[in-house]
Amino acid sequence: MSISPIKHLRLSSLASQRTPLRATWCRVQGQRWERRAVIDLRAVLESMLSQAQQDAHKLALKRITREFGRHPGWSSLLLAAGIFQTVMTILFAALLARVLHTLIIDEQAFAELHQPWLLILLCVVLRALAGIVREEAGTRISLAVRARLRSTLIDALYRLGPAWREKQQSGSLTTALLEQVEALDGYFARYRPQQWFAVLTPLMIVAVILPSSWAAALILLATAPLIPVFMILVGWGARQRQTEQFQALQRMSGHFLDLIRGLPTLRLLDAQHRLGDEVAQVGEEFRQRTMSVLRLAFLSGAVLEFFASVSIAMTAVYFGMSLLGYLDFGLYGEALGLELALFALLLAPEFYQPLRDLGTHYHARAEALAAAGELQTILDAESQQPAGGTQPVGEGMPELRLERVGFAHRQGETVLDDCSLRVAPGEAVAIQGPSGGGKTTLLRLVLGQLRAASGQVLINGEPIESLDLMAWRERVAWMSQHPRLISDTLAANLRVARHDASDDALREALRFADLESWFQGLPDGLSTRLGEGGRQMSGGQLRRLALARVRLRRADVLLLDEPTASLDAQTEQWVMARIAELRRGKTLILLTHRPAPLCLADRVLRLENGQLVAAATPFEPPLADLCGSPA
Question: Which parts of the chain span the membrane according to its record (predicted)?
Fold first, then answer.
């Protein structure tokens, strides 16, 4: 059969169209499979990361418990109170079952049973007192743990130094010291003690019931694991939600603090109203996360109550069927009496109560796990400061020397590379260089706030690691480029420089800094509050206050970081005159971008590519011949 030319042309055209269609279909399918593979891989990686994070949080909580949770005195009292409470519960059930049996079966008069009723009342009172003692002991343990942990965290923050702290969000650190430490309260006060009683109390009750009915004891033991199993299943989700809630709280704290700090700038730009919606959105996100955690907590409580009720009902059905004669096993061949049945039924809820309480407090464990992981980050952070020793620093102006020092930030950016410097006693050295070039890092190495990655920092020929750093810093006056106020009185802000300074010394320092007229206008004098919630200071006044602090300091070394930055020419000349007065009889290292302060220096160096080279001032001929190469 022959094919017409027209049909042949159509078939050829259709065949030619199928090839690109098939290729396109294969390409689309391949892209779908690739996307599915990427999604599956991402899910696996997220699961692995989540599991690794949970394991890290568990280890962190174990470490905190091991290092801070040992309080033998209060722990012994708590354990004794809990055991005594269980004994009173068993005695109460036995007395009440005997009284009811006597009234119902023996038909004895109620008036003849006043002594058993008094004993029952005594058991109730003693049980309540034991519960109060147990709760108080748990609270005391939690208070002691949180106090020691906060003290350790503050010591860790001091050990890590200002260079580390400045890289963190102040809001996050505040949240860690306050909210996250408080999040451990429920774990140490209630959950951890309840772990002991979730084992001890059921075993004591089973030990009492077992001699009378092995079947009832078996029902209790068989149904008991249901509660912790479902508690763990529900708790897995709660732990992840709790971690997310803490992270959201940290972000919200840092974000809100940043907005507060930047509020003056926002007002200048008339942009403060636009940020209201942003703050509201962050708050709403945190509210939703909090409600999500609470929903899971309530769900866990409902699940535990359900299984506890089912287990108690099974025990009641067994004893009811046995009393009616439908069941005759589990009693060691003896007949079941009302007293034994009532005794076991009264103890059945008490058997499950410790497990239910453990489930109720399980969210406290999830909260503690989330908090412990964040706190461990601070405890394990590697200090960038030298460890310090005990060797005292010699009297008088010291010689400062950096020998082939190297330093790099954690991001891997090298700022100092084989850098050497010698500053003779009483010498004034000015250092110039681009912003971010490592000038402030160099000062912090001299001050002992940072540890050199290579080379040595020597004070009077001794490595700074061997010196008593506290004593060394007492000999140094540091003036930051951005002086800060603390939210306290004017006197407290000045005594940052010297804690034992008298009021007369403070007033003299204010006169030196040309703040006397401003001081006389303060309503409460030295007791006037500054900073947050108090009187604010302008940039020029802050710079003068910093000079007053330097004046108060009994220092042999002055480290000044951009002391005239952002000042007008007249104020700059005034600051330079005060620095010239302060530097008499002292060693000075001055960082500056501006040319005017260079006239205060005996030698001018420039930091380039991580190394110091000789430079020249605009007031004198080139200093290269005079400076020589740094030692």
Answer: 76-97, 117-133, 196-212, 218-238, 296-319
Q: How far apart are CA 277 and CA 272, in angstroms?
A: 10
**Contact at 8 Å (CB) between 551 and 583?**
no
CATH for 69-380?
Answer: 1.20.1560.10
Q: What percent of the chain clears pLDDT 90, i.e. is strictly above it?
A: 23
**pLDDT of 488-543, one tens digit each?**
888 999 998 888 899 999 999 999 999 988 888 888 888 888 876 556 787 788 88
For 375-379, which contacts have Cβ atoms below 8 Å and span 24 or more sequence positions? 375/60, 375/64, 375/149, 375/153, 375/176, 375/180, 375/181, 376/56, 376/59, 376/60, 376/63, 376/64, 378/153, 378/156, 378/157, 378/160, 378/173, 378/176, 379/152, 379/153, 379/156
- Rounded Cα distance between 369 and 60, Å, is 8
Residue 215 near residue 330 (C-beta atoms within 8 A) = yes
Report DSSP letters for 6-50, one per residue: HHHHHHHHHHHHHHHHHHHHHHHHHHHHHHHHHHHHHHHHHHHHH
* Cα–Cα distance for residue pair 38/41, rounded to 1 Å: 5
8 Å CB contact between 555 and 586: yes
Beta-ladder partners of 429: 589, 603
Q: Report d(CA 629, CA 404) in Å as an integer.
A: 13
Beta carbons within 8 Å of 240's beta carbon, 6+ residues apart: 50, 54
The predicted-structure confidence for 5-50, as pLDDT tens digits, reads as follows 554 545 455 445 555 555 555 555 555 555 555 444 444 444 444 5
Tokens 């609470």 map to which residue?
Answer: 294
What CATH number is given for 400-627 in this structure? 3.40.50.300
Structure tokens at 498: 């010297």
Instruction: Please tell me the total number of residues recorded for the chain in this structure.
Output: 631
- What is the model's pLDDT at position 45? 45
Sign of CA dihedral 495, 501, 502, 507: negative
* 8 A C-beta contact, residue 466 and residue 391: yes
Q: Amino acid identity, residue 314?
A: M
86 burial (CB, 10 Å; 0-12 / 13-18 / 19+) is buried
Going from the C-alpha of 319 to that of each of 205, 340, 348, 521, the distances in angstroms are 17, 9, 12, 86
Angle at 416 (CA atoms; ends 415, 417), nearest 5 degrees:
120
What's the start-to-end Cα distance of the chain, in Å? 103
The dihedral region occupied by 453, where left means phi > 0, alpha psi between -120 and 50, and beta the remainder, is alpha
Classified as helix, coil or strand, 319 is helix
Average pLDDT, whole number, for the chain?
80
What is the CB neighbour count within 10 angstroms for residue 427?
A: 17
pLDDT, tens only, 345-390? 899 889 988 888 887 787 788 788 888 888 888 888 766 667 667 7
3-state DSSP assignment of residue 608: strand
**C-beta separation of 453 from 404 below 8 A:** no
Closest of 306, 287, 300 to residue 363, by C-alpha: 300
pLDDT in tens, 575-607: 899 999 998 889 999 999 888 888 889 999 999
Residue 536: both structure tokens together: 């604010």
Query: 429 and 590 in contact (C-beta within 8 Å)?
Result: yes
- Classify residue 335 by its DSSP letter: P
Whether 201 and 350 have beta carbons less than 8 Å apart is answered as yes
Residue 595 CA to residue 540 CA, distance in Å, equals: 19
Is residue 80 predicted with pLDDT exceeding 90?
yes
Element (H, E) at 400: strand 400-408
pLDDT bucket at 620, cuts 50 / 70 / 90:
very low
Strand 454-459 and strand 428-432: the pairing is unpaired
Note the pTM of the prediction, 2 decimals. Answer: 0.66
